[in-house]
Amino acid sequence: MGILWELSLLSQLLIACSAATALAQRHLLDDAASIRLVPAGPQGRLELFYNGEWGTVCDDSFDDRAATVVCRQLGYAGGRAHWGAYFGEGTGPIHVTGLQCAGTEPSLAACSNGGWSPTTCDHSEDTSVVCYDKRPVRLVDGAVPSHGRLEVLGFDGSWGAVCEQGWRPENTALVCKQLGYMVTLDRAVAIGGSAFGSGDGPVLMDGVLCTGYERYLSACLFDGWGITECDPETQLVGVDCL
């Protein structure tokens, strides 16, 4: 009887301990102060602060919906997932794997996960995130306001150009729509080759890929803020909306 009672007590203690751990993990994922992007700003390697140290997130099952939840917790409108240690490998522990979200959750705490302290991941699988909100766009150095070199307003308040690499008609139509021009896909025209000059700012967007369903350019898939191999003298994109 004594042994059975001790086993029952031990079982209850283990259950209570497990519940307390799960509660602590949920509290962590509810707290934006325990989530960061490295190196800093609106993009970087996703890290969580848990058990007294920062650690990474395995990219298994992580997608744009989970990235959007992360970015909303950090104060942005949405996000895109990047895999394979896109912003470099972390050095601390890998805290969690298999984060899956519907994209509508208020925090990562409401998402499911595949387990804490996973043993099947290494830092080559660290998750990265690029966050966005509605960044203004403009057309400059053209003869009229409806055409010119495309620029987007960066998070630091400076304007930067957009590279033509991978540019497609859906991108052009979305830019014109964001600027208030009601044009069809075949009427909006992209003008490459840095036809409107190189400008003075950096190249902020490269590899832009829009589907046409986005509401603004910064919500499209792209390589990351300021991540580019673009030659500003020959590869900046311009747009003609009329």
UniProtKB/TrEMBL annotation:
Tagged with keyword Disulfide bond: yes
Any GO CC annotation of this UniProt entry: membrane
Sorted UniProt keywords: Disulfide bond, Glycoprotein, Receptor, Repeat, Signal
Stored InterPro entries: SRCR, SRCR-like_dom_sf
PROSITE patterns per the UniProt record, alphabetical: SRCR_1, SRCR_2
Domain spans labelled SRCR: 35-132, 137-242
Keyword match Transport: no
Protein name: Neurotrypsin
